[in-house]
Structures are given as structure tokens and as C-alpha cells.
Amino acid sequence: MPSYRAVRLGITGKIASGKSTLSRILREMGIEIMDADSMAREVMEGEEQVRKSLIQVLGTDAYLDGKLNTEHVGKTIFSNPKLKTELEAVVHTAVWELMDARFAATTYGKIVGVESAILYQTGYDAMFDMLVLVDASEEKIKANAVASGKFSAEEVEKRLKVQNFGEEWKEDADYVLTNDCPLDEFEKRCRKLGALIRITAPTTLPRYPLRMGAVGQGPKKS
Questions:
Q1: Is residue 148 part of a domain?
Q2: pLDDT in tens, 161-177
Q3: Distance of alpha carbon 12 from alpha carbon 210, whole angstroms
Q4: Residues 205-219: pLDDT tens digits?
Q5: Beta strand residue intervals within 119-207, DSSP E
Q6: How far apart are the C-alpha atoms of 58 and 66, rounded to whole Å?
Q7: What share of residues in the chain are helix, strand, coil (percent, to 5)?
Q8: Can you give the CATH number for the domain in which 134 is found?
Q9: Looking at residue 213, what is its pLDDT?
Q10: Please, are residues 44 and 95 in contact by the beta-carbon 8 Å criterion?
């Protein structure tokens, strides 16, 4: 029997590709968008077992005054693939459980999205009914990231290498939004896509996400 639940929308793409711009525009259009990075921080700061495990992996510098030391964590994991893998083993399952609980609490008739750079890499793509991949060239990504003031060109290079994006994911995504233009033009594309998502979003849904398929695959547990 079909169940009546919110439509689950995934938004993914490389660092600084334009995901946050799309999320902002969709929020302005009344679509609720959650941020996976914020949820990761929530579990890393709020769940005691996760905190203990992170300190074991990254040392006591992982936290400052009880808060996640994001600068230390970011620099450490993006320069050490082994520690990154160990961190993901701790965090991904907790984020998956939180995300699933948030979806379960949403109401019928709504579209609820999650923005994350690693939906495919973690298997989270199977948690959604529709998935958007924001695509941009490395030149565009580097320009966006450096202009934001959050990253140096060197940091962007490191993050691009570890994100391991597959070209085949463009074929798999329900929508590919290309960011190869000035910001105002890209925002127009985001609004057009938002309107299309509203038109094409299904109203009657099965219990499991549409992208999960008949086999029932799901997020990878490390």
C-alpha cells in the first residue's frame, strides 16, 4: 500500500559547485532544505558516544570548549585519508539515523531536501525520491571557493581529490543543474529547476524512497 509522506529531494555536487545557492533559492520558494554538514556537526557535538569516538580518532584538539574544532578537523582529515575514513565510520551512521528521523517527522504534501557533497559516496542517494546534481568545472569551483574566502586554492584541490566524484553519477541523477555562468543567470536556472521539481514531484509515494529501488539498497555503513 502507498504511504503518504513528504517527497525526499537530494542535492549533491562537488565543493563550491553551487549547491548552497540552489538550496537558498529552493528555501525562498518554500521548500524545506536540511544541510548534512549541519547534521554531522549536530551529532558530533550532541551525541556523547560520537564525541568519545572522535576524540579517539582525532585527539582532544577535536573540540574546543565543548564545541567542534572545525578548522582542526577539516585540516586533519583532508590531509590524512586514513583518519578521514575512521571519522566517517563514526559519523555517517549517526547522520543517517538523524536524517531518517527528520524525514519521518515531515508531513504529507511537502518537499523536503538534504544538501550534501557526499550523497553518492556514502550511499545516501538511495534515501531520496528525486536527486539533483549540481555540476561545475574545476576552474569554476576553484574561483567560487577562493572568492568565498572560506578556502585557499590548495585546500580546494585537496577536497576535490578526496570527494571522488564519478562521471556516471550525472547519468544517474534525476536532474543535472550546470553552473557555468554568472551568479544571476545561475539563480534563474535554480528557480526554473525549483518550479520543475514542484510540478514533477509525486503526490502518492510508496513506503520506501523511489531511488531505493526493488532491491532495497541503502546508505553504506562503515
A1: yes
A2: 777 788 899 999 999 99
A3: 17
A4: 888 899 986 333 455
A5: 130-135, 175-178
A6: 15
A7: 55, 15, 30
A8: 3.40.50.300
A9: 65
A10: no
Taking the C-alpha atoms of residue 37 and residue 140, their distance in angstroms, rounded to an integer, is 22
Are the beta carbons of 125 and 137 closer than 8 angstroms? no
Instruction: In whole angstroms, give the CA distance from residue 93 to residue 99.
Output: 10
Question: Residue 20 and residue 12: Cα distance in Å, rounded?
Answer: 10
**pTM, to two decimals:** 0.88
- State how far the Cα of 117 lies from the Cα of 125, in Å rounded to an integer: 11
| Domain-embedded: residue 2 | no
Q: Is residue 97 part of a domain?
A: yes
Helix (H) or strand (E) holding 143: helix 138-148
Summarize the confidence of residues 81-100 as an average pLDDT: 88
pLDDT tens column, 25-60: 999 999 999 999 999 999 999 999 999 999 998 889
Asked if residue 179 belongs to a domain, the reply is: yes
Residues 6+ apart with CB under 8 A from 212: 126, 127, 218
Mean pLDDT of 98-120: 91
Of 96, 107, 118, 201, nearest in space to 166 by CA: 118
Give how many domains the chain has, as a whole number: 1
pLDDT of 195 strictly over 70: yes
Give me the mean pLDDT over the 88-114 stretch: 90
Tell me the average pLDDT across 114-143.
Answer: 94
Domain span including residue 24: 7-37+92-200
